[in-house]
Each structure stands twice: as C-alpha cells, then as structure tokens.
C-alpha cells in the first residue's frame, strides 16, 4: 500500500507506568512512529460514568499500513500500555482511535474510518483542528474547522 496519512486521537484518564494521563499520552505519541504533527495535550471533562478528567491529543502519522493493519498495531500498543478491553466509558490508561485517513473512507464490521462519532466530540475536534483544520471529512465534505465550529454553535 502507498504511504498515507492518518489522524489518531489519543486519550488517557488513568495513571500508568509513564505517570500522569498527560505523560501516558506523550509516551503513546512517542510509540506511534511516523508522527508528522502533534496537537497540544488538552485536559477535558470525562464522558459517561468516569469521574477523572482526560488528557487528549491528536497525532498525524504517515504509514504504509492499510487501516485494519494500523488498527491492530494501535490495539497492541494499548495492550502494551496496560489497557484492558471490557467496560466502555471507564477509566483507561490509553485510548488510540483512527479518526481520519487520507485514503478517504474505510468500512468493515471491525473498523469504520472516519470514526463514527468524531463529529460530535469536542475532545477530538479541538486538538484535531490544531493540526489538521483543513482536512476534509470524506463523508460530509466539511473541513475539521467547519465541523468544530458547528459543534461549538450547538452548545
């Protein structure tokens, strides 16, 4: 596969072997490989039952992996950081999600790109807009900047 770009959302709200959630995010960015841009780490309130605030960032990476292969690598990184699958919306040492892919859309049961929920998540759109404001969502045709502005207006 030709080299393509991905936007990867990174989040943590639990201490791990690297320290605070922000340090876990920074360590995950270092472990990704092929990083071309990184947003600042933002501290955001949790969604769902978790009480702990999140550290969130977005990294742009280049890779010759197709989306399913990159997803497998991201899940292996999560396991290496101590992430255990199971409870949704709970505290986590690290969460790595493929948000956008320069190849456009990818759809199969185990993986959908762009990420199904990213358009409604400020904790993804805010850091994504810092590094890829002009990247267009292949589904809506809107730029990340436009998606972020729409979300802010809804609040």
Describe the structure in your own words.
The strands form 2 sheets. Strands 1, 2, 3, 4 and 5 form a 5-stranded antiparallel beta sheet that branches. The protein has one domain (4-154): 7,8-Dihydro-6-hydroxymethylpterin-pyrophosphokinase HPPK (Alpha-Beta Plaits, 2-Layer Sandwich), CATH 3.30.70. It has 4 helices and 7 strands. The protein has 155 residues and is of the alpha+beta class. A hairpin with a 2-residue loop joins strand 6 and strand 7 (111-113). The protein is globular and about 40 Å long.
* Largest sheet: number of strands, sense, barrel closure: 5 strands, antiparallel
User: What is the beta-strand fraction?
Assistant: 25-35%
Radius of gyration: 15 Å
The portion of residues assigned to helices is 25-40%
Question: Would you list the SSEs in sequence order as H and E?
Answer: EHEEEHEEEHH
User: In CATH terms, what is the fold-level topology?
Assistant: Alpha-Beta Plaits
Mean pLDDT: 92
CATH class: Alpha Beta
Please give the domain count. Answer: 1
CATH architecture: 2-Layer Sandwich
Count of separate DSSP helical elements: 4
Keywords: ATP-binding, Folate biosynthesis, Kinase, Nucleotide-binding, Transferase
InterPro entries: Hppk (IPR000550), Hppk_sf (IPR035907)
Enzyme class: transferase
Function: Catalyzes the transfer of pyrophosphate from adenosine triphosphate (ATP) to 6-hydroxymethyl-7,8-dihydropterin, an enzymatic step in folate biosynthesis pathway.
């Amino acid at each position: 596969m030709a080299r393509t770009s991905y936007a990867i959302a990174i989040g943590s709200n639990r201490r791990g072997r690297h320290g605070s959630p922000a340090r876990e995010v920074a360590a995950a960015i270092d472990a990704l490989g092929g990083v071309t841009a990184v947003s600042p780490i933002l501290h955001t309130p949790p969604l769902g039952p978790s009480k702990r605030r999140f550290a969130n960032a977005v990294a742009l990476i280049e890779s010759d992996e197709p989306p399913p292969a990159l997803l497998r690598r991201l899940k292996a990184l999560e396991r290496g950081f101590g992430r255990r699958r199971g409870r949704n919306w709970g505290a986590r040492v690290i969460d790595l999600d493929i948000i956008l892919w320069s190849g456009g859309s990818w759809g199969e049961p185990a993986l959908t790109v762009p990420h199904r929920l990213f358009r409604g998540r400020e904790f993804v759109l805010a850091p994504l807009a810092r590094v890829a404001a002009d990247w267009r969502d292949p589904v809506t045709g809107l730029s990340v900047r436009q998606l972020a502005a729409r979300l802010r207006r809804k609040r």
